[in-house]
Amino acid sequence: MTDAEELRRRTRELLAAHPPASTAPLDFLRARFDAGLAWVHYPEGLGGLGAPRALQAVVDAELEAAGAPDNDPRRIGIGLGMAAPTILKYGTDEQKQRFLRPLWTGEEVWCQLFSEPGAGSDLAALGTRAVREGDDWVVNGQKVWTSSAHIARWAILIARTDPDVPKHAGITYFVCDMTDPGVEVRPLRQITGEAEFNEVFLTDVRIPDARRLGAVGDGWRVAQTTLMNERVSIGGMALPREGGMIGPVATTWRERPELRTHELHQRLLKLWVEAEVSRLTAERLRQQLVAGQPGYEGSGMKLAFARLNQEISGLEVELRGEEGLLYDDWTMRRPELVDFTGRDAGYRYLRSKGNSIEGGTSEVLLNIVAERVLGLPAEPRTDKDVAWKDLAR
Length: 393
What we know:
Layout: H1 4-17, H2 25-34, H3 56-65, H4 77-90, H5 93-105, E1 110-113, E2 129-133, E3 136-143, E4 154-160, E5 171-177, E6 183-188, E7 197-208, E8 212-213, H6 219-235, H7 246-255, H8 262-288, H9 297-320, H10 345-351, H11 362-373
Parallel strand pairs: 1-4
Antiparallel strand pairs: 2-3, 3-7, 4-5, 5-8, 6-7
């Protein structure tokens, strides 16, 4: 299945059998998945047709022109960008059949139980324990900075299953049911006033071994697939020219000439060019994905995304002057998605501060780029061969 015309034909058949104007959105999305037009590069029977990834644009253009509903990808970004590629690579046939369809249609939201209070930048130091009891694993611990946990049905979870080996070797990867007894989600209020993040407490949570992804003790390798895809999904998103954060400030510049100064003009020009370079680089990165799994270049894109968002939002606040100091609403809310362009300049400025933390801190990503992209010497690590239980805490 490599022919664009064949994909157009199949898409038109889908539209004829399920007219968007008279078909419930969820029914349409299910039919699209079953027709192999959800993500065409996935295997047949799993929402795809085994076609080149680049041909997804052919399907998307036909569906957009027909006014077909989408699956609200911003709301289910963790499932689409992190859980799905990991399940596809490491999941059993039963796991793929169970999870991928409702994940893609948005019927089941996913979250990520990775970071912990004592294991953020040094994720491999995590201490959440999973102990085998028959066909189950009993999990105890705490996770933090968990986006969408308050609306999630499932979570991708890494836990320590062997404390007697070095920290990277004793981790196992699971799928956790967020509705199970012992899973407690508490909101974390942010500088924006909202609580899109959460902390999650796991107390004697029983996870069947059938929901393990990969081999016991191989969780760190499985997690690398998740993390690399996460950075691509954050930093490599598809945008039109002046999409993202640069759009609102460019619009303000054009519509409010009384706010302009020479110094702000020079800064805006510089950031506009950098945003366009970043957008085109992200497009090249997505094209590279056609050839296989994402590499560590995604870390560089995520770095650029965080820095640009923070610099652009800072410029926007300065450009607006006193208006930039205003904020629309401090009400405590638990939103289902992050809407950078749908809120005011104050929100963008405050929320972008988290961009250099979420999805891997900028400091850690700089190390990854230095070591794994540029080939520079690695930092000295004295704990590589020390059993996790013997590490200083």
